[in-house]
Amino acid sequence: MNLIKKRTATVALAAAMLVLYSFTEKGMEHAPVLQNNDWVAPKSADNLKNPFKGDETAIKKGKITYQNMCAICHGDKGKGDGMAGMSLKPKPSNFTSEKVQSQSDGALFWKMTTGRAPMAGYKDILTEEQRWQLVSYLRTFKKQ
Ligand code: HEC
User: Fold this and answer.
1) Contact 48/41 with Cβ under 8 angstroms?
2) What is the rounded distance in angstroms from the CA atom of residue 43 to the CA atom of residue 117?
3) Domain residues of the chain, as ranges?
4) To which CATH superfamily is domain 29-141 assigned?
5) How far is CA 9 from its chain centroid?
6) 98 phi, psi to nearest 5 deg
7) Is the minimum distance from the CB of 118 to ligand 1 under 6 angstroms?
8) Which segments of the chain are extended strands (E)?
9) What gap in Å lies between CA 60 and CA 69, rounded to an integer?
10) Which residues contact 77 (CB under 8 A, 6 or more apart)?
11) Which residue, among 128, 104, 114, 109, has the nearest Cα to 31 in the 3D structure?
12) Which of 8, 22, 119, 144 is least surrounded, with the fewest CB atoms within 10 Å of its CB?
């Protein structure tokens, strides 16, 4: 590849990333909305679309990230009963619950992106792709 072609490729890549970014992070508000101290994502988060909805490969990748980073608090089976979560207040959420499963993909994505003490926000820790894969994996905890 000559230099000009390389430059064009770099510019094209940067442009593509910018478009992707503007689709997914656009309209993300950052202040948590609290109702009776419950953690509620802003309405605008519902508009964020999961690019990996029901995608089996994404679910497998999400599972690996989950086991490495989330199970310690949320538990292997997502019940909120991980070792490190025992003494936390509030307790880690139970992902099998209606309370969690009734939320939109966008709301769950927003929450793991933003975080709320004692849980970290994963915006700078996990890529956007990884966070959506996690959303897809969290859906597998839904009670049948
Ligand atoms: C240090 C323990 C800890 C770790 C690690 C952790 N969480 Fe959490 N998480 C919590 C707690 C505590 C809450 C409840 C916060 C609240 O209700 O205010 C929570 C809530 C959530 C919620 C909101 C669910 C709801 O009730 O609406 C999501 C989504 C979530 N966590 C995803 C994740 C993901 C994905 C990971 C791994 C990348 C992760 N968490 C890692 C402690 C943790």
Assistant:
1) no
2) 21
3) 29-141
4) Cytochrome c-like domain (1.10.760.10)
5) 30
6) -60, -35
7) yes
8) 33-35, 38-40
9) 14
10) 96, 141
11) 114
12) 144
Name the average pLDDT for the chain: 87
Instruction: Report the atom number in ligand 1 closest to the C-alpha of 41.
Output: 27
State in Å: Cα 93 to ligand 1 middle.
Answer: 6
Reading the block at residue 55, the tokens are: 């995608």
- Encoded amino acid at 22, one letter: S
pLDDT in tens, 14-32: 665 554 454 455 456 665 5
Ligand 1 centroid to residue 92 C-alpha, Å: 5
Please say whether the beta carbons of 52 and 58 come within 8 A.
yes
Residues ≥6 apart with Cβ < 8 Å to 138: 62, 66, 78, 95, 100, 108
Could you say which DSSP state residue 116 is in?
B
Q: pLDDT of 29-56, one tens digit each?
A: 665 555 567 899 999 999 999 999 989 9
Q: Please state the pTM of the whole predicted model.
A: 0.82
Nearest Cα neighbor of 113 from 63, 68, 50 is: 50
66-125 tens-digit pLDDT: 999 999 999 999 999 999 999 999 999 999 999 999 999 999 999 999 999 999 999 999
